Amino acid sequence: FSSLHSYSTAATFITTMALRSFVASNPCRYGIKASRSLRTYQNISGIGSWNDTRFDYHPCVVTSHRNFATDDKGSDKSKESNLPSVPTLQDAKSMDFTMKSMNNDVLMILAGMDNEPAVEEVLKRHIMCVDEVDYDGAEKTFHKIRAENRKGMVKYTFPYFAGISTAVVCAFGSIPLCFDYNAVHWFNEQYVTMDVPEPRDLETWLEVGSWSWNWMEPPLGQVSFLLLCLGFARSQLQNLGLKPYTGLILQRRANRLVETFPQYSPELVRKYSECDKKLFIFS
């Protein structure tokens, strides 16, 4: 029983220290609630005292230079309402609005989140280090890399434009082919040859649609099921780690760009190529 009590005491102490560390790193969001939970937990376990593990609430201000700035003194109003302090005019003026003015740590975090402007800025600074040039010189080299990344990709846009054109034509063309009497009658004579209903059964556009739906339903339903199956197949390809058409094209383009500029970091050049979403024709 003595060993069991020792293990229980150690586990309780570790849990208490972990909770203290978590609350200290998130005082604005979890300070009050976690403090009460910890107090209840310690009263039940009988370890430590509330004075030893008290968490003081500090109002927080988020700025561009620091994650959380605490005000130990605080204002009387903040202490009464327990609300975070608002940013000051100085904090607003010191905020960075462009990628050029951000520090390296912030840029690396944004680039890791596939933020395209951040990846471009990181690549420019990498060019400055490798070529030992100023920012203007790095921008000139970057423009060459961007032009090379988008060069010769027009031929790969044909499936996209073919799909767009087909979808738009079918979407708007299906409306008159279902509800317009002249279009329905012409289509019936050319491709269907179904018996025409009595004139009294074609007086409204809904009655015309009821007639045309006899031959419009099978192709529309089959096309919808086909697209559903293709979408499911595409998702399974992604689950297997295989790249559909767009991903395959992006991968080949990135490999070509890395081979064209071997003096720069392959990982960074590949990252930029894959994040460049202005694809193919916008060169």
Give structural notes.
The chain is mainly α. 67% of the residues lie in helices and 1% in strands. The protein has helices spanning 2-25, 27-45, 76-81, 89-93, 104-112, 116-131, 135-149, 158-179, 181-192, 205-239, 245-260, 266-275; strands spanning 60-61, 69-70. A two-stranded antiparallel ribbon has the order 1-2. Helix 6 packs antiparallel against helix 12 (266-275), helix 9 (181-192) crosses helix 10 (205-239) and helix 11 (245-260) crosses helix 12 (266-275). It is elongated. Mean pLDDT is 77; it is low at 1-5 and 27-80.
What's a concise summary of this model?
67% of the residues lie in helices and 1% in strands. By secondary structure, it is mainly α. The protein has a two-stranded antiparallel sheet.
Number of helices: 12
- Main β-sheet, in a few words? 2 strands, antiparallel
Helix content: 55-70%
* SSE pattern, N- to C-terminal: HHEEHHHHHHHHHH
Weakly predicted, low-confidence segments: 1-5, 27-80
Please write out the topology.
Blueprint (H helix, E strand, L loop, with lengths): L1 H24 L1 H19 L14 E2 L7 E2 L5 H6 L7 H5 L10 H9 L3 H16 L3 H15 L8 H22 L1 H12 L12 H35 L5 H16 L5 H10 L8
Antiparallel strand pairs: 1-2
Helix pairs in contact: 1-2, 5-6, 6-7, 6-12, 8-9, 9-10, 11-12
